[in-house]
Write a structure and sequence with these properties.
3 strands; single chain; alpha+beta; 90 residues; three-stranded antiparallel sheet
């Protein structure tokens, strides 16, 4: 069975790094299937952890076709070595 290109896009999971516009040293790492909608929620103050540092912009995002890999990468980026990696490479 062949997948249509739009079917693949709908199944993607995105690990993203946000940067606060007003507090540039503040970053947030998350995972979502709809990056545009998730950013809107962050900027609308609907996410308690990020509401006080809004507005946010997307600094980096990486798409994964496998949800488990996306979650594992998000977890890594939230670790000490992952934060150092992101700061240096992303």
């Amino acid at each position: 069975m062949l997948l249509r290109p739009y079917a693949i896009i709908l199944c993607m999971k995105y690990v993203y790094i946000l940067q606060s516009c007003e507090f540039p040293d503040r970053h947030y790492v998350g995972v979502t299937g709809d990056l545009k909608a998730r950013l809107a929620k962050h900027n609308a103050g609907e996410v308690p952890h990020t509401s006080k540092y809004a507005p946010w912009l997307v600094k980096t995002y990486i798409g994964f076709s496998d949800e488990a890999q996306a979650q594992a990468f998000e977890k890594y980026l939230k670790s000490g070595s992952g934060r150092a990696f992101a700061k240096k490479r992303l």
